[in-house]
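Hi R.,

As promised on Friday, here is the backbone we talked about, encoded as structure tokens. Could you run it through your design pipeline when you get a chance and send me back a sequence?
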């Protein structure tokens, strides 16, 4: 729920994402909203309402007082937009600080929230729609069927002007309007099967609301490995109070066997079901300024928790318990809707544009452990709640715990948190997981020469073609060439776009950048150029890219003046020397060093030093070497260009007949000692 408002009026909004069961009982859902409004109106300006308001006002005040600001430009844009709504004196605090309880205003707003003034907007795949006129443009196509010819009295059939999507506006039917009016009077609609309606009440006091906001004593800001007696867990900690925020960040990394990590379908389904369950069960924590995320990692699962440090440990332990135990009763009603949604998301892969497909095939070629979407879709269709429970059992069987605590946490408190986490992990698992058994993410080592994968479109609607060229440069993080590459890309991006997109007009999308696979000791860098075109087939696009890149060393890099080069390089140096602006930025940089096992807290400063040492001649030499580096080309033909399928691109590249066979025949990069 929320509100949108200008100076003279406001609109209260309630947004509900319906499950298939919710679609079937949408009238019950709508009545529940008005039943809740009736309960609020009955409470009016009573004691419970005042207590709820006081807690909300305090929570808003804490968010305002301890907000972590963004960069200056973003803040200025935000303030300017708010000045259209609030007077200059309230431009920053308006709508954010609540003040005292506005009893008369609350009663008046609740009185206005009646069925006679409601607008119900409903979007559903159950509705039929008309596809827009077919145009040769960049918009995504829509496959739908015609609307029924007749409309109820007083209805209108309208067309959204930009995408041409048709929709209807119609009066609320009398039977539904009467039910909503009854709900607003406080009459309760029974639950499914005639069961009594669930009780309605104002929120209970929030158990996650922070009341202790004192800052801890200043400690060592760089993470240090904490030694515990007979401890199997790995715990890094740093007390950081320089930002003046009584907040903390904690990461719980559970490394699990490769068989669990490689089961992408069940891992994704579990993450989705768990996330939906937690969003409901832990909603009070989000209101109290705490946030969390659970994500799949190359070696297991990562739980991140951040916010006010007072109640953060309580949330962290609750989340850890949810990760470690199988809650079948909570997951059962959520599993099938999430599985069906996951299947639909995977099916969407087959309607992707050619440039996205080119990137997808490149990742398949370079990541030996990546599963194709077809295999994921087959597994998602076959998944059951029982198979998900079996996956969870495999996941917790062997675990290794890594914890990183950072921010307004004393070392002793952080150690107690880590010890409690280790106790719970030890109780849930059967055995620990040695570091040598952790899953990893190897990267394909492209052999010298040029290789080309040619693919047809997956959708009959895709008319555009995609051409992707990738040059693999190796493990540059351990050599000065990484700094040289960053400078080269800075110098290349704008001229490449101007030539291929603006001047030659080869396609809608023209972009180039560094592409990195793996991390830490196995990180491999490369450069890619990608074009999406409606007018040219991939062979022509590749010839144009090749022709342009051959001119870069002399015509682009060599033509720069010393001042132009120093300006471009200086911008990069400035970016990498920028200090951390927020606690979140400081945490993120340090966690990256732990996650990638570099443990180099000054890596950005070292890279800035290396950038300052890059010369124009080095950038020019790297540009000349780029076109001779091992290369992968991915051609995805749109339906407009199938006549050119199989055409020789003139590059002398070797055709890849099967991406699976090619990938299996390649070596992979090994770990290296980082400098």
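Update: got your reply. Pasting your designed sequence below so it's all in one thread:
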């Amino acid at each position: 729920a929320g509100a949108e408002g200008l100076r003279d009026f406001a609109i209260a909004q309630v947004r509900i994402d319906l499950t298939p069961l919710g679609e079937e009982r949408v009238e019950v859902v709508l009545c529940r909203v008005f039943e809740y409004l009736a309960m609020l109106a009955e409470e009016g300006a009573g004691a419970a309402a005042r207590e709820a308001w006081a807690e909300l006002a305090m929570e808003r005040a804490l968010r305002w007082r301890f907000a972590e600001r963004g960069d200056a430009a973003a803040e200025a844009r935000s303030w300017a937009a708010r000045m259209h709504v609030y007077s200059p004196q309230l431009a920053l605090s308006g709508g954010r600080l609540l003040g005292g309880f506005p009893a008369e205003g609350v009663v008046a707003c609740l009185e206005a929230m009646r069925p006679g003034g409601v607008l119900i907007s409903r979007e559903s795949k159950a509705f039929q729609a008309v596809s827009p006129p077919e145009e040769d443009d960049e918009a995504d196509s829509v496959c739908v069927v015609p609307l029924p010819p007749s409309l109820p009295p007083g209805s209108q059939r309208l067309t959204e002007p930009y995408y041409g999507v048709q929709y209807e506006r119609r009066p609320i039917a009398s039977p539904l309007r009467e039910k909503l009016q009854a709900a607003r009077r406080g009459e309760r609609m029974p639950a499914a099967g005639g069961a009594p309606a669930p009780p309605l009440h104002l929120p209970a006091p929030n158990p996650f609301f922070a009341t202790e906001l004192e800052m801890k004593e200043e400690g060592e800001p760089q993470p240090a490995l904490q030694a515990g007696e007979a401890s199997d867990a790995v715990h890094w900690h740093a007390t950081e109070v320089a930002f003046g925020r009584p907040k903390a960040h904690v990461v719980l990394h559970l490394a699990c066997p490769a068989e669990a990590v490689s089961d992408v379908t069940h891992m994704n389904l579990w993450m989705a079901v768990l996330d939906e369950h937690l969003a409901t069960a832990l909603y009070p924590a989000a209101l109290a300024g705490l946030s969390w995320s659970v994500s799949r990692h190359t070696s297991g699962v990562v739980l991140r928790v951040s916010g006010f440090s007072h109640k953060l440990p309580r949330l962290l332990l609750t989340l850890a318990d949810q990760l470690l135990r199988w809650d079948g009763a909570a997951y059962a009603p959520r599993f099938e809707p999430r599985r069906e949604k996951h299947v639909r998301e995977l099916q969407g892969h087959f309607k992707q544009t050619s440039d996205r497909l080119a990137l997808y095939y490149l990742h398949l070629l370079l990541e030996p452990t990546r599963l194709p979407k077809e295999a994921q879709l087959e597994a998602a269709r076959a998944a059951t709640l029982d198979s998900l429970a079996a996956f969870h059992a495999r996941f917790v069987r062997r675990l290794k715990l890594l914890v990183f605590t950072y921010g307004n946490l004393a070392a002793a408190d952080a150690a107690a948190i880590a010890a409690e986490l280790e106790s719970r992990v030890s109780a849930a698992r059967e055995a620990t997981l040695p570091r040598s058994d952790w899953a990893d993410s190897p990267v394909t080592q492209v052999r010298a020469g040029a290789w080309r994968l040619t693919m047809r479109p997956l959708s009959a609607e895709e008319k555009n073609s995609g051409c992707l060229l990738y040059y693999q440069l190796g493990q540059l993080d351990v050599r000065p060439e990484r700094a040289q590459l960053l400078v080269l890309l800075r110098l290349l991006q704008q001229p490449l776009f101007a030539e291929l997109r603006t001047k030659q007009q080869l396609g809608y999308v023209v972009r180039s950048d560094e592409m990195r696979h793996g991390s830490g000791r196995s990180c491999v860098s490369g450069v890619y150029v990608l074009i999406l075109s409606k007018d040219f087939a991939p062979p022509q696009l590749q010839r144009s890219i090749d022709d342009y890149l051959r001119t870069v060393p002399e015509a682009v890099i060599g033509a720069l003046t010393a001042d132009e080069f120093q300006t471009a390089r200086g911008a990069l140096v400035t970016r990498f020397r920028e200090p951390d602006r927020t606690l979140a930025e400081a945490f993120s940089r340090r966690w990256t060093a732990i996650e990638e096992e570099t443990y180099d807290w000054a890596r950005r400063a070292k890279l800035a030093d290396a950038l300052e040492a890059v010369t124009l001649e080095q950038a020019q030499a790297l540009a000349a070497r780029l076109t001779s580096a091992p290369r992968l080309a991915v051609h995805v033909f749109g339906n407009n260009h199938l006549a050119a399928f199989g055409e020789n691109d003139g590059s002398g590249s070797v055709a890849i007949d099967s991406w699976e066979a090619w990938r299996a025949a390649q070596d992979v990069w090994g770990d290296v000692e980082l400098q």
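One thing I noticed while checking it: The chain is about 45% helix and 15% strand.

Thanks again,
M.
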